[in-house]
Amino acid sequence: LAIDRSVTMVEGGGSIRRLDGASTRLLCSGQVIVDCASAVKELVENALDAGATNLEVRLVDSGLTSLEVSDDGRGMSRSDLFDEDGKPLVCARHTTSKLTDPNDVFEGKVETLGFRGEALASLATVGEVEITTRDEGSDLATVLAFGHGGQVQESTCARSRGTTVKVCNLFARLPVRRKDFERNRKRELTKCASLLQQYAIILPKGKRMRCSHASSSPSGGKRKPATTMFQCGGGGGAEDAVLLNAAGVFGAKFARSLQRLHVVFGRDLELVDASVDPSLADEKRREMREGTSRATA
Predict the structure, then answer these.
(1) What is the pLDDT confidence band of residue 10, given thresholds at 50, 70 and 90?
(2) How many other C-beta atoms lie within 10 A of the C-beta of residue 216?
(3) Which of 246, 204, 177, 169 is nearest to 53 (CA)?
(4) Contact 241, 205 (CB under 8 A)
(5) How far apart are CA 93 and CA 122, in angstroms?
(6) Are 76 and 132 in contact, with CB atoms under 8 Å apart?
(7) Alpha carbon of 291 to those of 204, 210, 233, 245: distances in Å?
(8) Residue 205 CB burial class (10 angstroms; 0-12, 13-18, ≥19)
(9) Strands in 83-233 per DSSP E
(10) Per-residue pLDDT tens for 256-286?
C-alpha cells in the first residue's frame, strides 16, 4: 500500500466511540421522517392499512404547530399498545402488525403500504406524539402521549372506533431542520397538499378524505378558523370513483373536461391496447355533479 505523504491529513473528532442509544435513535429517525410531507404520508398509509373509510388530515401552521390524521379504521386493542410487561409497544422501534414472516417481503406477499415498524417510533423521536385509539371491543378510547425523554402518559376518552395520531413541534429536537422547516413553511405546505391530492385521486369507491389547514394568529391570540383544502370521495359507481375524486380535489369543471382512457397491460407490463372514450354520457356527468354536491355539503 503506497501512502502519499504530501497529503495533509485533517484531524477528525478523536477516537472511534459508540453513540448512545438516544443519539442513535434521533439521528436515524431523521432519515425516516425527512419533512412534514413524509410524516403525513406515513400516517395516511397507516390509516388506509387499518381499513379506514373516512380520513381527515388537519395541519396547523403548515404542520409547524401540529399535524393530525384521524380515521375510522379498526383501531388498536390494548395488546397492540402494550407488551406482556405493560410497556408501550406502539411507537417502539421495529414493531409492526403488518409483517409476520420476513420472507413475505422478498416473495412479494406484502399487501400493506408499510411494514417496517419505523414510522411511529421515528415520529415520537423527532416530535411530540399523541395517539388516541379505540377498537370495536373497547368501551373507551386509550390516549397515549409520548414525551421526548421516553415518558408515556396514559388516559382515556370517548371516541368512536378508529385512531387519531397528532404530532406537535415536528423537528424541535433537530434545530437545523426545524429552522429550514420554518423558513420554507409555504413550500412544505404545498408539498403536503400535492401528496394528499395524489392519495385522494386514487381513493376507491366508498372512501372519503378531507384535508384542512389552520393558521395561528400572528399576535399569539385565537387561532383562525380552519380552511378546507379539499374533500372528496363518497358516492358514485366504482368506475366513476376517480372522476368524483378529481371533482372534489380540482373542481367539477376540471373533472368534466377529462376523458376516460382504457389501458390494457400484458404480463410484463407491456402496453397491449389503449383506447379513449371521447365523451362521458350525460347520465354519468349528472351522477358526477350530484356526487360532488353531496361530498361538499
Answers:
(1) very low
(2) 14
(3) 204
(4) yes
(5) 8
(6) no
(7) 14, 15, 8, 10
(8) middle
(9) 128-134, 141-146, 152-157, 162-168, 208-214, 227-233
(10) 888 777 788 887 778 777 777 655 545 555 5
- Grid coordinates of 226: 380552519
Measure CA 168 to chain center.
14
Cβ–Cβ under 8 Å, residues 68 and 199: no
Gyration radius of the chain's alpha carbons: 23
Nearest alpha carbon to residue 134 among 205, 76, 197, 183:
76
CB-hemisphere CA count at 13 Å for 126? 28
Q: How far is CA 114 from CA 41, 58, 95, 209, in A?
A: 10, 22, 12, 19
The answer to whether 231 and 248 are in contact (CB under 8 A) is yes
Name, in order, each residue with C-beta under 8 angstroms of 2's C-beta and a sequence gap of 6 or more: none
Q: Are 272 and 265 in contact (CB under 8 A)?
A: yes
pTM, two decimals, is 0.76
Contact 61, 215 (CB under 8 A): yes
Contacts of residue 230, defined as CB under 8 A and 6 or more positions apart, other chains included, come to: 196, 197, 200, 210, 211, 248, 249
Quick check: 236 and 244 in contact, CB under 8 A? yes
DSSP annotation of 240? G
Closest to 67 measured CA to CA, from 203, 198, 191, 192: 192
Residue 283: all three cell numbers together: 347520465
For 41, the grid coordinates are: 404520508
